[in-house]
């Protein structure tokens, strides 16, 4: 496994789009594992259900819901991610949701690189509860 230290000397100063890239992959991995652990085994159903967790709209909703629970340090990274100019446009989301989703992913990537796995897991578990609560409503 690649050591985190080799990826980023100081995650606080890393490009927020790089953090978002890593956060996207990390969060997607946790979503897939979560769904399989819940007993889903049909690939088509897995894909459709995973999209409910990883869509820009879902991630924006997650971020807006958890923002009051974030630390000052985490909010700095959220703001960096939200304000990053990606040069690409959202395909299936409005720009505000896209920016908030990028901010959420940057936060996950930041926590991963910082080695704050317990906090990252707390936020991911909270994200699952938010998405699953929204599905029931």
Task: Kindly list the characteristics that best describe this protein.
mainly alpha; Ribonuclease iii, N-terminal Endonuclease Domain, Chain A; 137 residues
Molecular structure report:
This protein is mainly alpha-helical and 137 residues long. It has one domain: Ribonuclease iii, N-terminal Endonuclease Domain, Chain A, CATH 1.10.1520.10. It has seven helices and no strands. Helix 2 crosses helix 3, helix 4 crosses helix 7 and helix 5 crosses helix 6. It is globular and about 40 Å long.
What's this entry about, in short?
With 137 residues, the chain is mainly alpha-helical. Helix content is 74%, strand content 0%.
Mean pLDDT: 90
Order of helices and strands: HHHHHHH
**SSE-based structural type:** mainly alpha
CATH architecture: Orthogonal Bundle
Question: Could you give the topology of this structure?
Answer:
Elements: H1 4-7, H2 16-37, H3 43-54, H4 56-66, H5 72-83, H6 95-114, H7 117-136
Helix pairs in contact: 2-3, 2-6, 4-6, 4-7, 5-6, 6-7
